[in-house]
Amino acid sequence: MAPDTVPGRVLVVGTGLIGTSVALALRARGVSVWLNDADRSSAALAEGLGAGTAVTDLRDAKGIADVAVLAMPPEAVGEMLRASQDAAVADVYTDVASVKSLPASRARELGCDLASYVPGHPMAGRERHGPAAGRADLFLGRTWAVCPLPETSGDAVAAVTALARACGANVVTADTATHDQWVALVSHAPHVVSSAMAARLAADGVTADALRLAGGGLRDVTRVAAGDPVLWTQILSANAAPVAEILKAVAADLADAAETPADMTGLLVRGRDGVGRIPGKRGDSPREFAVVQVVMADRPGELARLFGVAGDADVNVEDVRIEHSPGHPTGVAEISVRPERASALLDALTADGWTARR
Amino acid sequence: MAPDTVPGRVLVVGTGLIGTSVALALRARGVSVWLNDADRSSAALAEGLGAGTAVTDLRDAKGIADVAVLAMPPEAVGEMLRASQDAAVADVYTDVASVKSLPASRARELGCDLASYVPGHPMAGRERHGPAAGRADLFLGRTWAVCPLPETSGDAVAAVTALARACGANVVTADTATHDQWVALVSHAPHVVSSAMAARLAADGVTADALRLAGGGLRDVTRVAAGDPVLWTQILSANAAPVAEILKAVAADLADAAETPADMTGLLVRGRDGVGRIPGKRGDSPREFAVVQVVMADRPGELARLFGVAGDADVNVEDVRIEHSPGHPTGVAEISVRPERASALLDALTADGWTARR
Fold this sequence. Notes:
Two copies of one chain form a homodimer.
Chain A: E1 9-13, H1 17-28, E2 32-36, H2 40-48, E3 53-54, E4 65-70, H3 74-86, E5 90-95, H4 101-109, E6 117-118, E7 120-122, E8 143-146, H5 154-166, E9 170-173, H6 176-201, H7 208-212, H8 216-222, H9 229-237, H10 240-259, H11 265-277, E10 290-297, H12 302-312, E11 319-323, E12 330-337, H13 342-351, E13 356-357
Parallel strand pairs in A: 1-2, 1-4, 2-3, 4-5, 5-6, 8-9
Antiparallel strand pairs in A: 7-8, 10-12, 10-13, 11-12
Helix pairs in contact in A: 3-4, 6-10
């Protein structure tokens, strides 16, 4: 398969939210998708949603796919990689688990073929779970981490990168240990920090009247703490050392602030600087990006097709807003990109037959 | 003045965001409003916005108002209370500063009349500052803490309570020390915790690629850390002891979590329980509230008038959504209230001439 070519045949193993969303996104790009899940009713539901065709037994699926996407929790990836490689279902294998060192180590222990294995992690999710929550646009404009091992072949990396882009995502490459430090910083430690603040609200002596003073700030800070404690304990345990390092530093800063409250401007300045480094999407100054406007018909798959063009042109989508008048059959997508990439996107869209302007 | 009667004449000293918004809200209820600010151009702008009539010198304003609202930072309240009581501008005085023990102590030190002083704090704000940012609906459905001192008269408390309700707010009463513990918990400590997490993003070695993995969770947790470090240092210094107590507890929980990461389910469960205690407004299950629908004309002050009726009927507004078709002159306000108060609201609205239904 040539580099940057979207795989034509993909097997998705595990039809939960992420697996089904990958399948739906690829179907929208015309990819042939096969579905498998230990829970046959889950795969059947995903099939009913148009996500692909269910296959009951992987042992009957030799050579069925160019790429197999293993969409399951981190601790289950190693065994499934071993089983699917034993059945030779695909040329290239990837997973979508939220930590990367653990599944990679397990794959190594189990003697899996590492040349064809590309650990991956799309940064997307929803509150809801299961195939019914799947959405073709779940990865649009999101970051998808691709984390090759030293043994992983360049062709395998290219195939998984093309797959991620076909789903509308922007690819970032890192080794597995670096990835795990990154997600500890941007996801896992913030979850624990949010929980520790929220836990104060459940302390003895906190009255309902006190909580009536709560505003949007408290809600923002504590929102993620509403997540499932059992699921999050699994995630945090699978990435314990990088998370602990950050929590220690945060705890030390907070203890210092408690000690000398009049002297915490330095911490507040560092905090403001830190927030300012978070890129794109929300809360950003729109001046930083150029906006490309694209006329869109109101039909399913149109946005996915649009983001496919952007991905093929190697343009990162920083934000997207859809303007749509009720009852009017066409709308306008306003796509924010880095100014130096706006022309490339405009050219690619025009070449593909879209009506677009800056 | 009879209890629960909205003051007919109000003087607002300080025409920033909060002062101007109080003035606009009261003007919408037909209250006569006078405006004063050390910066005359600020008072003039507020006057130009229809917030009331500017008075240049408080010493010429003897007996001008039933209630004077001092809308300025905590450290300035005491002196202004002394000056305005010396000028005898009003029968009753209140302030809107975000901490209450500091201005109350200062007022006591300065020998102010405490019988006519009702410390207060509306829980509302915006990103923007100054009179131009003022909005008549800033306090709609928000909580307004009223914090009488032991010396404060019942009549003074009744007048300020009626004023807060006339602005559309729901009143909670607490002594000043309790108020300060409450805001430490729901606002000040969360700000520092958010900053401490955000500060990690500005640490050495954190790359732009790492931050490209940031999702909505990190943005939520760190959003308030974007606030002005100098302003927040003032706020935190004015409420140092209650904030320090909470920060110490959060730091201890985070240090424990770093020590035994596999054992943090307990913290996550407490955090989830804490989030679940935050009432109303956002993220709540809508089942908990009854929804009253009210037809609204598209003209200024309509919402303020609506909330005035709810306040007069002693109905707390838990949430409000406006449904409005573009180009259509009337909309529908969907008002969430506790189920047992829905009939009272419906009766009050109908008696006041509104078209309303459950």
